[in-house]
Amino acid sequence: xxxxxxxxxxxxxxxxxxxxxxxxxxxxxxxxxxxxxxxxxxxxxxxxxxxxxxxxxxxxxxxxxxxxxxxxxxxxxxxxxxxxxxxxxxxxxxxxxxxxxxxxxxxxxxxxxxxxxxxxxxxxxxxxxxxxxxxxxxxxxxxxxxxxxxxxxxxxxxxxxxxxxxxxxxxxxxxxxxxxxxxxxxxxxxxxxxxxxxxxxxxxxxxxxxxxxxxxxxxxxxxxxxxxxxxxxxxxxxxxxxxxxxxxxxxxxxxxxxxxxxxxxxxxxxxxxxxxxxxxxxxxxxxxxxxxxxxxxx
Amino acid sequence: xxxxxxxxxxxxxxxxxxxxxxxxxxxxxxxxxxxxxxxxxxxxxxxxxxxxxxxxxxxxxxxxxxxxxxxxxxxxxxxxxxxxxxxxxxxxxxxxxxxxxxxxxxxxxxxxxxxxxxxxxxxxxxxxxxxxxxxxxxxxxxxxxxxxxxxxxxxxxxxxxxxxxxxxxxxxxxxxxxxxxxxxxxxxxxxxxxxxxxxxxxxxxxxxxxxxxxxxxxxxxxxxxxxxxxxxxxxxxxxxxxxxxxxxxxxxxxxxxxxxxxxxxxxxxxxxxxxxxxxxxxxxxxxxxxxxxxxxxxxxxxxxxxxxxxxxxxxxxxxxxxxxxxxxx
Lengths: 298, 329
Known about the structure:
The complex is a heterodimer of chains A (298) and B (329). Chain A has 298 residues and is α/β, with parallel strands linked by helices. Chain A has a single domain, classed as Rossmann fold, CATH 3.40.50.970. Helices cover 39% and strands 10% of the residues of chain A. Chain A is built from 11 helices and 7 strands. In chain A, strand 2 (110-115), helix 5 (122-133) and strand 3 form a beta-alpha-beta unit. The termini of chain A are far apart. Chain B is of the alpha/beta class. Chain B has 2 domains: 2-184, 3-Layer(aba) Sandwich (Rossmann fold), CATH 3.40.50.970; 197-328, Rossmann fold, CATH 3.40.50.920. In chain B, 39% of the residues lie in helices and 20% in strands. In chain B, the strands form 3 sheets. Chain B has a 7-stranded mixed beta sheet, sandwiched between helices. In chain B, helix 1 (6-20) runs parallel beside helix 7 (151-163), helix 9 packs across helix 13 and helix 10 (245-255) crosses helix 11 (270-282). Chain B starts with a strand and ends with a helix. At the A-B interface, helix 4 and helix 5 of A face helix 3, helix 4 and helix 5 of B.
C-alpha cells in the first residue's frame, strides 16, 4: 500500500526466529535481537499494533518513539534490549547482561540473535569470548541466510559453518535447519537448560534464507539469481510447519485457514490503528539526551 | 580533611563507593591481581572478590560493551581503559551505544556507566601513552566528559560520576596522579558535574583551562602577580561536557581579557569551543583579542625528552609570556 517508508523483510526466517525464541521464558529471560527479528520480538510479547507504531514512526512506538528506523527493536517492559544499526554491537551487551544475571543470582538467560555477517565483527568475537570465559548464560543464535546484504558467505568467511567457530571460544556449536521450527526450538531448549545449569553459552547456527531483499531499499536481483531464491522457497518454514500439523493431525486445513484469517484480521486492525495514532510532537526532539529529573513534584 | 595525591583520592573514592553499594563492579585490563597499572585498584581483588573486580580480555570495545550490558541489567559498572590512547576501538560502543541509549529509546532504557581513562602527556609516554582524547567525546550528545585536576575534585567528581544516571567518561591526567597533592574533604564529598571552579582569583585577565594545564596556569599567574603585579584569574572548567560557560563568561566580563589553555592539539580542540562561545557571548566585553594556546598539531607527544618538552613548552615560559602580552594589550 506504500504507507511504510522502510521495511526489513523477515520472510524465510520465521522458522528459526519463532523456534529459537519460543524456548525463552517471557518475564524471566532477556531478548537481544537484531533488526530482522520480527518473529523474535513477537514471541517476546510485542504486539502487532506496537510493531506498526514503529513502522509508521509514531509517538507511542515502544522502541524509540519514532526516533530510530523501523525494526530497531526495544521495549524495557518486555526486556527486549534496544539495539542500533552498526552490526554486532549488541553481542557484548548480551554478555554483560548475562554477567549481571549471574551476579544477581537470577535463574535466567539472554538470547542474542544476529546474522552471519555479524560474525566478522570484532564485537562479535569480544562478546563470545567474554561470555565463554565466565561461562555466562547466553544463547548466541546466528540466522545464517548466506548473504550480508549482497556479500555471499564465501566472501565473509572461509569456513562452511559459523558454528565451527564455537570451538575456538570453548563453547558448543550447533548447526540446525532454520526452516524446521521444532528443531530450532529443541536446540535452543537444550542450550537454555545448559546455561541455567551453569555450563555456559552455546552458539546455535540456523541455516536459513531470506526470500526478499535485505530491506525495502535493496535490490537483490543485482547479486543473486531468481532461481536460487525460488529453490529455497520449496522449504518455506511456514509451509513446512503447516504440513507437519496436517500430517500429525494436530490441525486440519479448515483450522489453518481460520488461523490465517484471524491473523490477517489482527494485522489489518493493527495497521489501521497504528496509522491513526499520533505522530511525535516535534518539540520533543530535544528531550532525553540526559536524565530529566522530574521538576513537577517537589 | 586529609592531604593526599590525586591517584590516592581516586582509589579511596572508588573503595568507599564499592564498599557502600554492591551493584558497583570494576572491569578492565590488569585491574585485578595487578591492581591496575597505576595501582588505582590495589588490594581491591582480595577485598571485593573476582566477581566485582574483573580482569578482562585485552579488548577495549568488549570492555565497554560488556559494561553497557551490565548497566542495562541493574549493575553500576566502572570500566577502566588502561590508557586513554587505547580507547579508540571502543569509540563505537561509547558513541553509538552508551551515549545514545536514553535518547534512542525515548527514555525507556538507560546506561549508568563510568569509563575511567588515564590521559595526557608529559610522563615520557610517547605517541601512545600521552594522548588527549577529550575533544572526540565532548562532541557527543548524551555523554558527560569530566576531567578533574586536584585530589578534592577527583574525589568529588568521581563520586558524582558513579551516581550519575547517564554515561560519564572520567579522564584522569597522568601527570596529576602523583605530582598534585591537596586536601580532600572527609566523608561523602560530591562535586556537581558541569560546575567550573576559580582555581586562582584575579581581576586583570581570565585564563580558562582544565587538566594538568590548570597547574601550569596557576603557577604562571602567581609569577605574573609577583613580577608584574598583574592578577590573572584561572578558571578550571573541570568538565568539557557539560561546559560551564556561565562561570567562564562571568569571569571574562569581570576582567575583559580572555585566553584559553589546553594540552590537546590546538585545532578543533576543546579550547576552540570555549573560545568561540566567549566570542559569541562576550565579544563587546573584551578589551583585547582572544588568545588560544593549545598543543602543536602533531600526533601526540614524541618520546625523546627534548621533543616532548617542545610539545609542553614550545617556547620557554610560553603561558607566562602570553598572559603578560594579553594583560599589556
